[in-house]
Amino acid sequence: MVFLTQNNFPLKSWHIENMEKTVLKYVKGLPDDASKWEIRKHKKYGKLSNIIRNINYDMKHGVTNDQVIEVFFKIRHEPNYCDLQNNLDAMNRLGDLERHCKETF
Q1: Three-class secondary structure assignment of 13-30
Q2: pLDDT of 67-103, one tens digit each?
Q3: What is the DSSP string of 32-83?
């Protein structure tokens, strides 16, 4: 007998990837050679409050707290992100994001 199960989060994998991209984009920050358009968009959408709102939206669609914390851990410890680990400003932004996420979770 086959039972049908409801898929509560059909786009869960997409939201996990989106959350990772959002965190990475915030941590990397604005490049030095950014165009006026990039500066304008960063000023409008690149604030910490917008990033937290985007993460919370992804969490409503299936991303767990553990997965968010895992992304923070990967950025801090994996060799793939050594350029970010050596950047003091990037690590400060990651620390701010971690603190705000711990408060809201």
Answers
A1: HHHHHHHHHHHHHHHHCC
A2: 999 999 999 999 999 999 999 999 999 999 999 988 8
A3: TT--HHHHHHHHHH-SHHHHHHHHHHHHHTT--HHHHHHHHHHHHH-GGGHH
Question: Is the Cβ–Cβ distance between 83 and 31 less than 8 Å?
Answer: no
DSSP state of 85: H
Q: What angle do CA 56, 39, 50 make, to 5 degrees?
A: 10
* CA dist., res. 34 & res. 29, Å (int): 10
> Do 23 and 74 meet the contact criterion of CB atoms below 8 Å apart?
no
Is the Cα dihedral 17, 20, 22, 28 positive or negative? negative
pTM recorded for the entire structure: 0.85
